[in-house]
Amino acid sequence: xQTTRDGRRVxxxxxxxxxxxxxxxxxxEGLHPTVFERSSNxxxxxxxxxxxxxxxxxxxxxxxxxxxxxxxxxxxEELPMFLTNQQAHAYLLKxxxxxxxxxxxxxxxxxxxxxxxxxxxxLSATSLRLI
Length: 131
Ligand SMILES: Cc1cc2nc3c(=O)[nH]c(=O)nc-3n(C[C@H](O)[C@H](O)[C@H](O)COP(=O)(O)OP(=O)(O)OC[C@H]3O[C@@H](n4cnc5c(N)ncnc54)[C@H](O)[C@@H]3O)c2cc1C
Description:
Blueprint: E1 9-13, H1 17-28, E2 32-37, H2 65-68, H3 85-101, E3 121-124
Parallel strand pairs: 1-2
Antiparallel strand pairs: 2-3
Bound molecules: flavin-adenine dinucleotide.
C-alpha cells in the first residue's frame, strides 16, 4: 500500500456519511485513510438496498438540504429542500468521488471490487469511486 507524507495509515470502519467525512478530514491532514464497508456500496443508511438500511423506497429526508450537506460540498440549487432517499444517496456517492479527486496521493491503487455483501472489503479512500 502507498505511503503518505508522514507514512501513517488510518482505518475507518463504515462508509456511511460519518466514514466519508472522516476520510475527508484525514486526507486534509495528509494521512492515508482506508474505508472498510461491509455492504456492497457506500452511503450507510442512505444505501437503501443495503441489508443494514432502514430506508424505504418512498422515504424523504426530514432534515433540509441546508442542514444535510457537507460544508465543503453544497447540494445543487435545483434539488428540492427535502431530498428523496435516492437523491441523498447519489449526493453521498458524488462526495466520495469528490474525495478521490481531491486526494493528491492517489495513484489508482486499491481497485477492489465488492464480491459479496457479507465480506469486509478494504477500500482505499483513493478508490471510493470504483464501488
Ligand atoms: C429510516 C431513517 C431515516 C433517517 N432520516 C434522516 C434524515 O432525514 N436526516 C438525517 O440527517 N438523518 C437521518 N437518518 C439518520 C442517518 O442514520 C444519518 O443521516 C446517517 O446515515 C448516519 O451516518 P453514519 O455514517 O453515522 O451511519 P450509517 O449511515 O449507519 O453508516 C454506517 C456504515 O457502517 C457500515 N458498518 C457498520 N459496521 C461495520 C463493520 N463492522 N465493518 C464494515 N462496515 C460496517 C454499515 O454497513 C454502514 O454502511 C435516518 C435514519 C434512518 C434509519
